[in-house]
Amino acid sequence: MKAKGFAPVLLGLLLLHWCFSSGNATAQSEPPSTEHFTVFLPLVTRASTPPYFGLALATPEADDLRLLDVTWYYNWSEQPLTANTAAFVPMAYDGKIRHLPSDFEGYLLVFNEPNLGAPNGCGLSPAEAARRYALLRQELPNARLVVGGWSVFASDWIGDFIRELRAGNLPLPEYWHVHAYTEAWITPRVAQDFLTSYHNLTGGTYWITEYGSPAGNLEDFRSMTSWFLSQPWIERIAAYTNRQPADAPWAIGSGVELVKEKSTLTPIGAYYAQLARQKK
User: pTM for the complete prediction?
Assistant: First the structure.
């Protein structure tokens, strides 16, 4: 993930002020192509104890899901990789549905980095995102919408989105999802302060649907993961990613990869898989 730099000092503590002022946007990932996926309607059941460790699956390798021992995954689309894998959660990448039936009752991730344009995100204004969210509520009245998918430092976008929802008399979502990478300029503590401030602003339950260290810093990854586990309002996490196509325009540092060639785990992947097994 590449980013426009600005000093990280007190960023998290100043977040609520920034929610109503302008800020810088940064780049992350767009969805990998799903043209070669077999089409199945996603089946997501509601468990009394929800799954926790998941995967943002950039490369369609079903064996990687088993290798990492995750309990759920998504792939930036409405269509799962295969029917015989960990539980799949579909995504309405740009807030529009194309395959889900109107009686769908599972979880649906809504938006991918709306604060960024292609090839990194769906590029929606807060006003347009609010309009599409309202339509989704009508089109899928029984779905459990997990809304947002913004970059962790996009305080201006989420602040404006909240204002648009309130202006339209729309209820705030019960579930939110957000991305949280660490960089040289955004330490685990800074990212954690951002996330805490967001939760103070929005309320609800959070999923972390992309996180990692582009530099492959295991200690940063451990710090973030341990912190997620300690927060009662964070229900699920999904590391980015199993393997990353090197030539993809949305690719970030190779340090985020959990799986290497010949299906062996990176140090970060081994740590993540161990925690996933313990959490089951």
Answer: 0.83
